[in-house]
Structures are given as structure tokens and as C-alpha cells.
Amino acid sequence: MLRRIPKKRALAAVAAVMGIAVWQAPSASASVPLQYTTHRYVGSAVAAQYLASEPDYRAVLTREFDNVTPENEMKWGTVEAVRGQPDWSGADAIVEYAQRTHKTVRGHTLVWHSQLPDWVSALPAAELRQVLRDHITTEVKRYKGKIRAWDVVNEIFNEDGTRRDTVFHQKLGDGFVADVFRWAHAADPAAKLYINDYNIEGINPKSDAVYDLVKTLRRQGVPIDGVGIQAHLSIQYGFPAQFRENLTRFAKLGVQTAITEADVRIPTPPDAAKLATQADYFGRLWDGCHAVSRCVEFTTWGFTDRHSWVPDVFPGEGAACLFDENLHPKPAYFRINP
Ligand code: G3I
Q1: Is the Cβ atom of 87 under 6 angstroms away from ligand 1?
Q2: What is the Å distance from ligand 1's center to 308 Cα?
Q3: Where in this chain does the record put each GH10 domain (predicted)?
Q4: Least buried of 27, 54, 57, 134, by fewest C-beta within 10 Å?
Q5: Which atom of ligand 1 has the smallest separation from the CA of 309?
Q6: Does 22 reside within a domain?
């Protein structure tokens, strides 16, 4: 059952009566911005570049969401592409925006095999361990108190549930996962620490592997607080089986879950039937998260078809977001915010 807790809606109403401008209704959107319709954090991935250069993009983001996740700006390949020459400009800009607009930040991501600088991949094991520790400590401390949750490790499993063959796994072994959570926790004890992956929406060998790992880490006292479920879906492959059951089994382990990167791609061009299926998928993600109290966040991977990773990676597919290229809300938006 969908739990719509109207407290944020009530706050918006009180603010309106008092003459406080909380938001401005656009002509074509629902009367209440998405962020005020739920007690879940409602987020979007954001690109610092567009935040700075596109006022309409910034306005919709500010109005509709109360969490932001830097899409690329906190990844190792961005913050230290060249050893010893850090670049925090994009990450700083997003964190400052979030502070100014009273949004939380989901940090993404500390340890990932992709967008990893070549100089890191080339390090021998002992040095890699030290450099990894320094990277985590430096980045987490830089934003201490300003990041609600971190995606500490990203995409460490194969589809069959075996560990992905990354430089971290090759050189440091399975145990690197427990280490990186401990290092992140030491750097900011208040931040919620997550493991994050795709294709773990339903119950399958990969989500089983995540489940087993989280269970083991919790037993060992490793500071892991949550499981990030990316939810990159396509209307071509059906909605994942046993989504709610999956959220529930993680909740029973005592950890939070979060929908961290939701989008639903469709074969282009979109038409009414495809958009209706997309709306149904977004709705089932939204309702499923609201049915499990420990599912605390619903974040989409970008909010506008104007800027989405999907067409670059899946030629012939796209239109995966809640808003179209002109920032008009799509049927999927009205499905979760009727
Ligand atoms: O910044 C450079 C730019 O200088 C250059 O001109 C341009 C030329 O291609 O590339 C730019 O970098 C691109 C970067 O996005 C920023 O736009 C990279 O090539 C491109 O590979 C990178 O893609 C990102 C991808 O992660 C990397 O694997 C996507 O934007 C981002 O949406 C995507 O996000 C991932 C999550 O982090 C993890 N889960 C899956 C999700 C989708 O793949």
C-alpha cells in the first residue's frame, strides 16, 4: 500500500498562507512539487555544468527535489584524474548548491572500477591500499556533515553473484569491502554508508550476493547502513520480479534501502503507450519504496530527457526521465504525483 504522508504538503500549505514563497507552480505540472508529497528523500542526479549554465534546469531541480546526487563530480576520475592534482570544483559547487537550497546530498561514489584514473589501476597492491584509504579519508572528510549518505562501493558483483574482477578485488581481495566501509565511517561517523548496484531490484543471483554480503558484514560489525538499488529499467525487459520482497528482506537485516538511480528507458520515439508503460514502472518503484518503511529515498538518474546518459549508451533507447527535454512533466511524473 502506498503511504503518502502529507506532512511536507501541510508545511507547503502553511508557508503559502504565511506568504512564504516555497515553490512556484509551473503551468503544466502538478500543484504540489514532488518533494512535498512524501517523507522519503526525493532526489535526482545532477550535473554541475548544467546547474551553472541552465536556469530552467536549476529551477525545476530546486522546486521538485530535496536530495541531489552528483552524477560524475565526486568520482575518483573527476576529483583526481592526475595524481596529486585534485579538482573539487564540480563537487564543491553541487554541495554548496545543496546547502543553499536545503537539500541533502548523496555522495557518489568512493570506490568504483569505472571512471577510475589509470594511475590508480597501475599501483602495486600495498600502495593501492594506502592510496585508496587516503582517497576515501580525504573525500569523506572534505564534505563531513554535508553528505547524508555515501555510495561507498559501487557495482562490485557480476550478474551471477560472483565478485567483479576489478583492480581492487584482484590486488586487495574480498576484504577490501569491509576496509573501505571502516575508513569511510572513521572519516564521517554520521554519514549513512551504502553498497550500490544495478540489476538488484528483484530477487536474483546478484541481489542474493548483495544480501549475503550485507548480512556477513553486519555480523562482523562493519559499519554498513544501506543498500542502494539503482533501478535503471527498460520497458523492453519487464518489471523486476519480487521487488517489494527484495526490499523487505533487506529491511529485515536492519539496513536501509534507497532507490538511487531510477530511470526507465523506452525504444525511441516515445508514444502514448510506451509512456504509459514507463509511468507504470516508475509508479511501481515509487509504491514499492513507500510500502517498506526502511526504503528511505527515491532518487532518479537525472530528471530531464534533455540530459540523460541513456541515448549515449543504449542507441535507439531514451526518454527515460520524469521530465521531457523541455522540462514538461511526463505521464510518469503524474503517476507518482497525481
Ligand atoms: O567530461 C568529459 C568531457 O570533457 C569530454 O569532452 C566528453 C567526451 O566524451 O566526455 C566527458 O566525460 C563523460 C562523463 O560522463 C561526463 O559527461 C564520459 O565520457 C562519460 O563516460 C561519462 O558517463 C557517465 C558514466 O556514469 C560513466 O560510466 C555518465 O554521465 C553517468 O550518468 C554514469 O552514471 C552511472 C553511475 O555513476 C553508476 N551507475 C550507472 C550509471 C549509468 O551508467
Answers
A1: no
A2: 10
A3: 28-338
A4: 27
A5: 32
A6: yes
Q: Buried b / exposed e across 259-273, counting CB within 10 Å, b at 16+? A: bbbbbbbbebebeee
> How far apart are the CA of 71 and the centre of ligand 1, in A?
8
Q: Is residue 2 part of a domain?
A: no
Residue 69 Cβ inside 6 Å of ligand 1? The answer reads no
Check residue 271 and give its pLDDT.
Answer: 98
Pocket test for ligand 1, best of 44, 51, 72 (most atoms within 8 A of CB): 72
Q: How far apart are CA 338 and CA 332, in angstroms?
A: 10
CA of 47 to the centre of ligand 1 (A): 10
* Residue in the structure block whose three cell numbers are 593501492: 128
Residue owning grid cell 590486488: 171
Q: Please provide the average confidence, as pLDDT, over all residues in the chain.
A: 93
Is this model's pTM higher than 0.85 or not?
Answer: yes
Domain count of the fold of the chain: 1
Kindly state if the Cβ of 263 falls inside 6 Å of ligand 1: no
User: Residue 139 class from Cβ within 10 Å (0-12 exposed, 13-18 middle, 19+ buried)?
Assistant: buried
Give the residue numbers annotated as catalytic, written as ranges.
155, 261
Determine the average pLDDT of the residues in 161-168.
Answer: 98
How long a stretch of residues is the chain?
338
| DSSP-assigned letter for residue 239 | P
Residue 138 sits in a domain whose CATH number is 3.20.20.80
DSSP assignment of 4-68 equals --THHHHHHHHHHHTT-------TTS-SS-GGGG-SSEEEEEE-HHHHHH-HHHHHHHHHH-SEE
Q: CA-CA distance, 255 to 239, in Å (whole number)?
A: 24
Asked, for residue 1, whether it belongs to a domain, the answer is: no
Residue 125 is assigned to a structural domain of this protein: yes
Residue among 301, 309, 310, 313 whose CB has most ligand 1 atoms within 8 A, to mutate: 309
How far apart, in whole angstroms, are the C-alpha atoms of residue 185 and residue 194? 11
**pLDDT (tens digit per residue) in 86-126:** 999 999 999 999 999 999 999 999 999 999 999 999 999 99
- Cβ(314) to ligand 1 under 6 A? no
